[in-house]
Here is the input.
Amino acid sequence: MTRFRGWYWLLLVAALLGIAAIAVARGAVSVPLAAVFAALRGRGDPTALAIVRDLRLPRVMLGALVGAGLGASGAALQGSLRNPLAEPYLLGVSGGAAVGAVIAFALGFTSDVLVTLAAFAGSVGAVSVALAVSRVGARGARADLRALLIAGVIVGAFANATIMVALASAEPNTVRGALFWMMGSAADANWQRVGWLALSILAAGGALVYWAREIDVLSLGEETAASLGIDAEKSGRRVFLIAALLAAATVAAAGLIGFVGLVVPHIARRLGLRAHRPLIVASGLVGATLVVAADLAARTVAAPTELPLGAITALLGVPFFLVQLRRSA
Amino acid sequence: MIRVSDLVVSYPRSGRNAVDGVTFVAARGKLTALAGPNGSGKSSIVRALLGRADVVKGSVAVADSDVRTLSLTELARRVAVVPQREETTFPIQVREYVGMGRYPHLGLWRAATKVDDTAVTDALGQAGVTDLADRDTDALSGGEWQRVRIARALAQKAPALVLDEPTTFLDVAHEMAIFELLSSLARSGLAVLLVSHQLNLVARFADTIVLLNEGKIAISGAPTDVMKADRLEAIYGWPVVITRDPAIGAPALVPLRRPLTL
Here is the structure.
């Protein structure tokens, strides 16, 4: 196995900054890198200034934050659920968020804030239901943490059915709006949204980094965790809830962007990281890099048509995951 | 020291108590073995010790504190447990793995200090796995993995050590090596409680054997008192003879053939 070296951190940060600089420069109108850096310092012609500071930069930052949140959330969930296939979207977060957003669209709400709030409420609701279902499944006895995974899948399936019913009788405009949102996009970025997401990620991501040692111990199984002073059920639920909130915040900000939470922790592990404190941080960096790159591709590959970001990440993620699966088999 | 007093453990939807009025002591400096047929209540006692079983009556106390009055962290500082099963979904470097034994000692920021590093180095040495420190847990043989798990428990620096079937699936040499290790740990002053099926090995190494049957203590005492053919035959439901092992004269159990009559 590869050993993680200290300078890999520099590599990870450099990769993120490099791809971010390119993403700010490239697009419908290309801005030379020198002009990008000038604009960041508030200099240059007003057009370049507006493109960089009002359009591209918030978009790139939103993409980076979404990727960071999904990556960190995935790393924490895989460790605490002891399942390399766990990811936030498998746990009902995405389905719940989609239901919330679609209901908001169907009720005729078009305001950005309301749809975001509805999506967030939807994911929190779905996660609560998943927690409750896993508890019922265990009939009040100590729930196996992995029952949560199954509960999440079931809640997600129910959410999909709800969306189809809601969309079957909806106006074409509602359907288009909901569909665009379900495909995931960083196009609607603005500084306010970036600010809120940054706050949520700092809070929830920081909490995950704080509890990372517990996740290390949880990954050894419930009995060993108990022998090391950790109530696996309580601690596992806490990690699950924080990771779900983290993912819900990203979904509310940019819609459904699949496979990032699943694939990114595996990339971080391939770099040689095992302990969850550095693993979660590295997953955040890798996730940010990946989503910024995917968003750049979404904007430029078929320009002027913009491809759905969620579809790009899935197109990148699925083959990667198959290779990963083959290697581990 | 671990003191089990009149312990009764039961599981929901089960007819009889899994543990039914068991009393014994695992003293410091001694290797105490908990033996008995499958389902005799051995693992339930370990679960009760960790607060993971319903204790109906009686108590398990570690260093004179009832485990139910201790927080899980306080308990983990007093007794280190190597459970029967452990998951290894994500392999980790041996040194990092052994470092997890320090979890109950970490401060508010859960950051390892010099004391923790020293404890890990000591534990690796005591368990004889210093050479494996840089390996990954998925690159270990069965015997190495068990020793590494014991090292993780030793890093806890608890005065009592409990092991649930640590030699299952090990070959003779690795099994002997584990027993020698446990015996020397007991001599160094730890209270070692070993749950084991290996009656013959237990008879050679343990100071005291507590033999359970159907949740109750069938016999307990020194190996020579416990290894009686008639009692063992009744408990295991199989004809046996007791001989002496030729090396040190410890009592040894030989199960007899009993061909199936078709």
